[in-house]
């Protein structure tokens, strides 16, 4: 057989009690009497029908793929590994299970980034690097030892690190990906949580710089996502460990908070000589944060490859290009490109909404918002940017009619489809049932092309809404929002919990949807790259978070970016090779020149 191919059976999906083994009945080697697809024999003892195993020696490989087609539950994947991949796995979870190739290299004094999709083995790699699991080098039948792992990595940059893990010398602190789960695991105030983790006496400084003070005595359960994210960061960074693993720092944080978090992490690595490994999907922030970068690619759920370290600039550039040079590996058919120049003013379509100056306050001494009058055009994608707590959701609720302005009249009667920032879908309902209750287009080839495929919904259709991960829930919520019949689509932070590839896909789904339906879309998001790819114009919020906010009228991209970034005091330069925007070092020559010229983004 093609010995560069692997068979992966998802045992959560393989349900022989509901099929009649079409996979093995139709498998060509099986039909000639060979034992390619056989029964595992594990469930028989419990009296249930047996799940299947596939012999990778006998299987004919991806070009056959008959079992993949026949399986009604999408439980089987047959994948030809790229021929460029000439190494053995670092770890394989078992027969026909996920395999990981390569390992990231943590280094004291430095921040190492991993850029790649979810489900590609990042957590698996970290468990190995933390010494929680001995990688089996693909020999899942044998008891793995650190000696054999050391043999594998002798002479590489990992040798020294692996020796220390073997000797039990590496301690780890980690920040989980889904901070929303923290209240389920911890009772008490933010201060209680933080004090238990303050091993370096650094807590007060983190509370101050991450602006946690105002909520530190509040119950964890009452904190917003952005507050939880900052508490979780402080709790992780305040520990006294050798190796810090941060699985995404940006969800729910605004750009100012993201930049602060990035600086604190860099300081920890540089000044305290610690090794930090981060997974981050906001590329502008990853660029600022990491010293070196591993790109991870493969087939989520089936296999993942962590490349050797690259410089951050090269790593991100190659990733965007879709081609990894050293590895001679294409990871995406097309490149992702950015406009170097601000888009020219487009001829305007019909106005959809013309609104007057508005004001809204939540009461005496409470937050107040004022909104400059403006026009939103049919068919445009309007980006909305500004810090957290500045009134963006308040404006969304004024438009949906959930709030009434104190000053100004909104007399339009528009159907608005709204995806909130925090997605609560707790109905015990399957994804397909939920989505088909929203649109009768559900399942049509048109809907599949426009919505289900780019949002990668096919593999989660049969899952329960309550069992979905953060990223899966986000994709279902975006699909639900776009599937409704409406005049205006309003999406609040669609990038949260999506990996980079999913952000790109979601961006093009939203853009294409707007173009094909003459639909008007307003998107609130903090990911600058996503905004750049998505928005035609920008509405910029400024003011003092939690106290008062001001919303500008919709502006052209250049003016809007200048307005927004001058508030943040951040300038972007262009990468010479790919033209992608990169955050300038504060007070560098370019930073000063651009500020003097008033060109913060399209310099
Ligand atoms: P990431 O952190 O990149 O999202 P993970 O390392 O958590 O990815 O998981 C990679 C793959 O390994 C997933 O498809 C997951 O289902 C699979 N996996 C994780 N743990 C196990 C396990 N104990 N047994 C079998 N498969 C596993
Ligand atoms: P953003 O969407 O920009 O993060 P919001 O519009 O959600 O900002 O909130 C702006 C400010 O208004 C915040 O300080 C928030 O706590 C406050 N706020 C929001 N809703 C209410 C309410 N119902 N009553 C009192 N204050 C509120
Ligand atoms: Fe059999 Fe392999 Fe073909 Fe599947 S892909 S039917 S296991 S030969």
UniProtKB/TrEMBL annotation:
UniProt region (Disordered), positions on chain: 575-603
Domain of life: Archaea
Claim: Nucleotide-binding is one of the keywords in the record: yes
GO molecular function, one term: ATP binding
Record key words, sorted: ATP-binding, Nucleotide-binding
CDD domains in UniProt: ABC_RNaseL_inhibitor_domain1
4Fe-4S ferredoxin-type domain span: 50-81
Biased composition (Basic and acidic residues): 575-598
Annotated ABC transporter domain residues: 76-325, 353-568
PANTHER family in the cross-refs: ATP-BINDING TRANSPORT PROTEIN-RELATED (PTHR19248)
Protein name as catalogued: Ribosome biogenesis/translation initiation ATPase RLI
């Amino acid at each position: 057989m093609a010995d560069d191919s692997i068979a992966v059976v998802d045992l959560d999906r393989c349900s022989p009690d509901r099929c009649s083994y079409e996979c093995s009945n139709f498998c060509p080697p099986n039909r000639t009497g060979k034992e390619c697809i056989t029964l595992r024999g594990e469930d028989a003892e419990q009296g249930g029908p047996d799940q299947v195993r596939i012999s990778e020696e006998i299987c004919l490989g991806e070009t056959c793929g008959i079992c993949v087609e026949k399986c009604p539950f999408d439980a089987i994947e047959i994948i030809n590994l790229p021929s460029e991949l000439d190494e053995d796995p670092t770890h394989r979870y078992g027969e026909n299970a996920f395999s990981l190739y390569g390992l990231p290299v943590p280094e004291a004094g430095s921040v190492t980034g991993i850029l790649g999709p979810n489900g590609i083995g990042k957590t698996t790699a970290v468990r190995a690097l933390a010494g929680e699991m001995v990688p089996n080098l693909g020999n899942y039948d044998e008891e793995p030892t650190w000696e054999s792992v050391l043999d594998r990595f002798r002479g590489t940059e990992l040798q020294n690190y692996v020796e220390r893990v073997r000797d039990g010398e590496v301690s780890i602190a980690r920040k989980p990906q889904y901070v929303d789960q923290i209240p389920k695991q911890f009772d008490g105030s933010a201060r209680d949580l933080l004090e238990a983790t303050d091993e370096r006496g650094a807590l007060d400084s983190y509370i101050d710089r991450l602006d946690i003070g105002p909520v530190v005595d509040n119950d964890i359960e009452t904190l917003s996502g952005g507050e939880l994210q900052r508490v979780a960061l402080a709790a992780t960074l305040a520990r006294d460990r050798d190796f810090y693993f941060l699985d995404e720092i940006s969800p729910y944080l605004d750009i100012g908070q993201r930049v602060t978090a990035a600086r604190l992490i860099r300081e920890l690595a540089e000044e305290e000589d610690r090794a930090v490994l981060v997974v981050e999907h906001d590329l502008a922030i990853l660029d600022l944060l990491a010293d070196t970068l591993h790109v991870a690619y493969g087939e989520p759920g089936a296999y993942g490859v962590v490349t050797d370290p690259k410089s951050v600039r090269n790593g991100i550039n190659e990733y965007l290009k879709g081609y990894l040079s050293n590895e001679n590996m294409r990871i995406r058919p097309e490149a992702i490109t950015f406009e170097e120049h601000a888009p020219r003013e487009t001829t305007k379509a019909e106005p959809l909404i013309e609104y007057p100056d508005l004001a809204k306050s939540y009461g005496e001494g409470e937050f107040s918002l004022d909104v400059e009058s403006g026009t939103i055009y049919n068919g445009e994608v309007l980006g909305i940017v500004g810090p957290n707590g500045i009134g963006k959701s308040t404006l969304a609720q004024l438009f949906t009619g959930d709030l009434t302005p104190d000053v100004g009249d909104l007399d339009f009667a528009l159907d608005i489809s709204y995806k909130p920032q925090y997605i609560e879908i707790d109905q015990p309902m399957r994804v397909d049932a939920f989505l088909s209750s929203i649109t009768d287009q559900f399942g049509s080839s048109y809907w599949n092309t426009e919505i289900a495929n780019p949002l990668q919904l096919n593999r989660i259709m049969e899952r329960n809404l309550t069992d979905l991960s953060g990223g899966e829930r986000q994709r279902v919520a975006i699909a639900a929002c776009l599937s409704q019949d409406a005049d205006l689509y309003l999406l609040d932070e669609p990038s949260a919990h999506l990996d980079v590839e999913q952000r790109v896909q979601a961006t093009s789904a939203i853009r294409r949807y707007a173009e094909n339906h003459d639909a008007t879309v307003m998107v609130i998001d903090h990911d600058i790259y996503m905004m750049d790819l998505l928005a035609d114009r920008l509405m910029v919020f400024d003011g003092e978070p939690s106290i008062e906010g001001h919303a500008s009228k919709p502006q052209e991209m250049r003016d809007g970016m200048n307005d927004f970034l001058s508030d943040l005091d951040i300038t972007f330069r262009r990468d010479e090779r790919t033209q992608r925007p990169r955050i300038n070092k504060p007070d560098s020559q370019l930073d000063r020149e651009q500020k003097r010229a008033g060109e913060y983004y399209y310099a």
